[in-house]
Design brief:
There is one protein chain. By secondary structure, the chain is α/β, with parallel strands linked by helices. The protein is 41% helix and 22% strand. It has a seven-stranded mixed β-sheet with strand order 1-2-3-4-5-6-7. The structure holds zinc ion. Zinc ion (ZN) binds next to α4 and β12.
Length: 300
């Protein structure tokens, strides 16, 4: 099951109300007022790690952030885009992990010619690893994994906008990929960060590709996001579409990374490490991510 909802954070409502007041008193276009963007999230089920795709929706355009793990979920995202009645302008892939790009071709099939953007560093990593992921994905997911890959394009040097409202790329931060190829998008008009897999919300973070050094760099990435003073932080994975997208998830990530390092230092084996983290975080879902992360860290 996937689910979706319009973004209903208090900050978003405040922005919307303010815009309505403006529109009610003077024609917004005549005064040059910027349109108000809306965020809409599509969240996968637990078997697909609750991965999140986000539509950034303007009056006539949509930009999509991440494209899901399965082709059927990619088609669900395409349905949501079609339901807006607006033009899909571009797709952005936050980082070159399959759960964020396997669904892309299902979306491009529905909206041919849509550019798929990544950063140059992410494209280089994609070139090294994506075909191997796809071949392994076919073994595990069968028809739900793509039969071929797409050709990502470099994120436009002039930036991206939705109906003239700018999006800011926060390129090549440290997240769950070993090399710093996790990018986020900052939407100043909403004070919103689409954080991809720099932030997990209600889900055990994927740390199987991390090292003590990358986790330290990851903490610095979290600090750089917090320095923007966002009102909204959308995680790359969240346990439910109904979970709020608050900046508290940044502090959660800091603490989890510290606790992961501490548990690695104190535990004598994988089982003890998993037990320590589970006891500290009984409410987090997708426990297999914790098991896999602990197993990998004991092999380093
Ligand atoms: Zn992910």
């Amino acid at each position: 099951m996937t689910s979706s909802r319009p973004h209903l954070s208090p900050a978003g409502l405040i922005v919307t109300v303010a815009a309505l007041v403006l529109i009610g008193t003077r024609p917004a276009r005549a005064q040059g007022a910027s349109p108000v963007l809306q965020l809409e999230e599509i969240v996968a089920d637990s078997q697909n790690f609750h991965v999140v795709s986000t539509l950034i929706v303007g009056p006539s355009e949509v930009v999509l952030f991440d494209t899901q793990n399965r082709l059927s979920d990619g088609r669900r995202v395409a349905d949501r885009i079609a339901a807006t009645g607006k033009r899909l302008k571009a797709i952005f892939i936050s980082h070159p992990d399959e759960d964020h790009f396997f669904g892309a071709l299902a979306i491009v099939d529905r909206f041919p010619g849509t550019p798929i953007y990544m950063t140059p560093a992410a494209i280089a990593e994609f070139g090294r690893t994506a075909e191997g992921m796809r071949v392994r994905g076919k073994r595990g997911l069968g028809a739900e994994a793509p039969d071929s890959l797409f050709h990502p394009q470099e994120y436009p040097a002039g930036g991206l906008a939705v109906d003239g409202v700018p999006l800011q790329l926060l390129a090549d931060l440290q997240g769950d990929v070993l090399d710093p190829t996790n990018s986020a998008i900052w939407i100043p008009s909403l004070r919103a960060v689409l954080a991809g897999d720099i932030v997990f919300n209600g889900v055990h973070p994927y740390l199987a590709a991390s090292t003590p050094a990358s986790r330290a760099a990851w903490q610095a990435s979290l600090d750089s996001l917090a320095a923007l003073h966002p009102d909204i932080v959308v995680a790359g994975h969240k346990a439910s579409a109904d979970l709020p997208d608050t900046p508290a998830s940044l502090e959660f990530m800091h603490q989890y990374l510290r606790d992961f390092d501490a548990a690695r230092a104190s535990a004598t084996d994988v089982r003890e490490m998993v037990s320590t983290i589970r006891t500290k975080y009984p409410d987090l879902t997708v426990g297999m991510l914790l098991g896999y992360s602990a197993m990998k860290t004991f092999r380093q």
